Structures are given as C-alpha cells and as structure tokens.
Amino acid sequence: MDNRFATAFVIACVLSLISTIYMAASIGTDFWYEYRSPVQENSSDLNKSLWSDFASDEADEKTYSDVLFRYNGTMGLWRRCVSIPQNVYWNNQERTESFDVVTRCTSFTLNEQFMAKFVEPGNHNTGIDLLRTYLWRCQFLLPFVSLGLMCFGALIGLCACICRSLYPAIATGILHLLAGLCTLGSVSCYVAGIELLHQKLKLPENVSGEFGWSFCLACVSAPLQFMASALFIWAAHTNQKEYTLMKAYRVA
C-alpha cells in the first residue's frame, strides 16, 4: 500500500470517528432547540397544572409546546425539558422552601414519536398534517440509520486493515456517503418541522427560540461524513487503478 493512500485512509478513519462521536452526542442530548422566556411566577395553580400536564404521557403537541415556550424549554430527539422552580410539586415530590431553578425532563414515548400531527396542534378534529407527521418521524429515525451505517462501515474498514487491502474501503466510503445523506436529511427535516410548528403555534411575546448545540453537532457531523467518504473512495479507487497499471506494465 502506497504511503499516500495509507495516510488518506488514516485521515478518513479519524474523520469517521469524530463524526460518529458527534452524531452519538447529538442523539443523546436534549439541546436541538432551545426557548428563551422571561421568568414565570411559580405560585399559581395554572403553572402547577401546566407542569403536571407536561410530565404526562398523554400530553399532546400543543400542551407540551406551550410549557416549553413559557419555561425556557429545550427539546431533543427523545426528550423535552423545562426549567422550573424547585419548590413546585413534581412527580409527587415534597415541597421545599428553595426557589432555585432546576431542569426537569420527560422522554417522548414510542407512541408519541409515531403519533400523527394535526393541522391545528392539539385539535384532533382538524385532520392529520401528513407533512409534519413524516418530518417528525424522519428527524428521529434518520440519525439512528446514519449511526448504524457508520458503525457497519467501521467494521468493513477494520476488515480492510486486517487484510492490508484498500479494496473494502470503497464499501466503507459508500456507507459513509449514505450516512452523511441521512444526517443531512435529519437536520433538514428538523428545521422544516420546527418552522412549520411555529407557523401553527406562534411564539408568545418576549419568547425567542434558537437551535442548540446538539443540533450544531449533527450539522458538523454531516460534512465530516462526506469528507471521510470521499477519502475512503479516493484511496481505494486510486490504489486499485495504480495496482492495475503496474500489473499491466509488468506483464508487458
């Protein structure tokens, strides 16, 4: 194996490892989107009711979105979180005298992940919004597909190292290309889904939203996957081409 191709292969492996770490961290954290809102009063029965509804497994999209808007919520692919005063009842915990703000999270169940989105969030009588429904499903399925493709590509790359051959690296490069497309698709679906949600549910006054660092990790992971793919394919293809030319030269 030529040193140029070996170097390209090593760089591609490093890029692949970094993108895998970024993608795994992105999937496992809850900061894909963050809301910033003024501090809310914590003593009203309405607020306590909202927090209770937020933690319920039966909370619909409008219910938990309203709470996210009001209480500095953050949302990931699998969980939603809010910052609440510590002296509020939560899951039947005892009331304390502390007024410190703590973060509480509730996971999206599989049923919620596959639940249909309605034309008017929270209103089941308005019909199913197919576009938002499939955008939501794609945004949490595609990252796992991407991660799986990279892991499978890593196994093929390991075989290439054991065999001391770059030929299997072509398959690794193709898998990384598909993984990058899945990551890019997931990011695009998430952005589209958030924008469509905010068209249906307008943000209250003095409330702002922005994409968080978990979302940024996914955005960075996609180009790393594409670069790793290009290096894998280039190294394998060029090495095979030079080997064929050298073999033909020897025969001649």
From TrEMBL:
Q: Does the keyword Membrane apply?
A: yes
What is the annotated localization of this protein? Membrane
In terms of InterPro entries, this protein maps to: CLDN1, PMP22/EMP/MP20/Claudin
TM region(s), chain numbering: 6-27, 140-167, 173-194, 215-236
Its name, as the record gives it, is Claudin domain-containing protein 1
Short name of one Pfam family? Claudin_2
**Which residue spans adopt a coiled-coil conformation according to this UniProt entry?**
none
Keywords in alphabetical order, please: Membrane, Transmembrane, Transmembrane helix
Q: Name one GO cellular component term.
A: membrane
Q: What is its main location?
A: membrane
Q: Does the keyword Transmembrane apply?
A: yes
Annotated membrane topology is: Multi-pass membrane protein
Q: Which organism is it from?
A: Myotis brandtii (Brandt's bat)
